[in-house]
Amino acid sequence: KRIVVLISGSGSNLQALLDCASAGQLGGEVVAVISNKAEAYGLERARLAGAATAVVANGDYPDREAFDAALMDIIDGYQPDLVALAGFMRILTPGFVRHYQGRMLNIHPSLLPKYQGLHTHRRAIEAGDGEHGASVHFVTEELDGGPVILQARVPIFEGDDEAQVAARVLVQEHAIYPLVTRWFCEGRLAMQDGKAWLDGH
Ligand code: GRF
User: Fold this and answer.
1) What pTM, to 2 d.p., does this model score?
2) pLDDT in tens, 32-60
3) 104-108 and 29-35: which strand pairing?
């Protein structure tokens, strides 16, 4: 299976996918990595792994529609079976999301439906939550609102700061994102009637 990964930053989740692929455990290949930030370190990770890279910069387009149209053109040039958002920090238009419906995944650093959007770790700490985590979900038009496929939980300990919690969650992200991607590549996972369907579970 052909996977295109979209990033905006460090790309540690991308790295987890690349490592899994190079170990022959992903059931697919990361054919291209596209960033909306030219300085994203994830682009370097992609180059080191031999994947194609592209930058679609926010500032080069007059509006969201134009940006998304350019992004879609580049993605579709790689004929992906799956588009994986991995720290891609940009809201996508409904038309874009519909185009990849059922074949676009995202990883979000919270136990959805809690804490959609930004600053999830800070919000979990401030709420006094004893647990927190990450979710892999299909992308739908509702931001961070698509059907959840798999979650990982971590504790929040007394006195933890945002960075400690973020690091603890990130370790789990690196475990669950490749796993769900593999399920998708193996044809064991799909979205049907707006729900996640997982074979044999
Ligand atoms: C991750 O926490 C991801 O869940 C969130 O942004 C962060 C990206 O980290 N959406 P990285 O770029 O994969 O290291």
Assistant:
1) 0.97
2) 999 999 999 999 999 999 999 999 999 99
3) unpaired
Residue at 195 is within a domain: no
* pLDDT for the residue 201: 55
Closest approach atom of ligand 1 to CA 7: 12
In a domain, 198, yes or no: no
Question: In this structure, is residue 194 part of a structural domain?
Answer: no
The rounded Å distance from CA 108 to ligand 1 centre is 7
What range defines the domain where residue 75 resides? 2-188
Ligand 1 atom with minimal separation from the 108 CA:
4
pLDDT tens by residue, 89-123: 999 999 999 999 999 999 999 999 999 999 999 99
Residue 193 lies in a domain: no
- How many folded domains does the chain comprise? 1
Residue 194 has pLDDT above 70, yes or no: yes
